[in-house]
Amino acid sequence: MTTPRPDLVERSRPFLPDDAEIRQVFICQSAPNFGYFVITYLTGLTIGLIKYRCVAVTSDNIYVLESSKMPGGSRPQSLVGTMPRHTRLGPVSGRWTTITLLGERHWVHKRFYPSIREADREAGFSYSEQN
Predict the structure, then answer these.
(1) Burial of 8 (0-12, 13-18, 19+ CB in 10 A)
(2) What residue ranges in 59-110 does DSSP mark as E strands?
(3) What's the pLDDT band for 18 if we cut at 50, 70, 90?
(4) Which residue has the higher pLDDT, 35 or 62?
(5) Distance between CA 64 and CA 79 in Å, rounded?
(6) How many other β-carbons are positioned within 10 Å of the β-carbon of residue 11?
(7) How far is Cα 50 from Cα 107, in angstroms, rounded to an integer?
(8) Cβ(120)–Cβ(89) below 8 Å
(9) How far is it, in rounded angstroms, from Cα 41 to Cα 124?
(10) What's the predicted TM-score (pTM) here?
(11) Is the dihedral of CA 12, 17, 23, 29 positive or negative?
(12) How far apart are CA 89 and CA 110, in angstroms?
């Protein structure tokens, strides 16, 4: 089992129901296309067009939280929406992968793949050994 990052759990907790137990949590970003991330990395010019999200997965729901741009989405600020817990988040592969949250494409870095895989396993989805 993957242990969720304690800092993300603590910062996400105020936006969830009091009795919600965060099982997994991860950060992702949304932009019109991946090129915006490259431009932001090199120049910072497109940072205003990128949305940062923190995603908290409980046994009942998936909570999508709006996050601050600095420091990289790790400080949730408001609840954007919820998704049913039986929603599959993966599969994930490569250095960055895309997932769909609330009908919008988001990019997730590979350091969060264990959290996504564990969330999918807990929801009843399986992964092959290659994933």
Answers:
(1) buried
(2) 61-67, 76-84, 96-101, 104-109
(3) very high
(4) 62
(5) 6
(6) 19
(7) 11
(8) yes
(9) 37
(10) 0.89
(11) negative
(12) 14
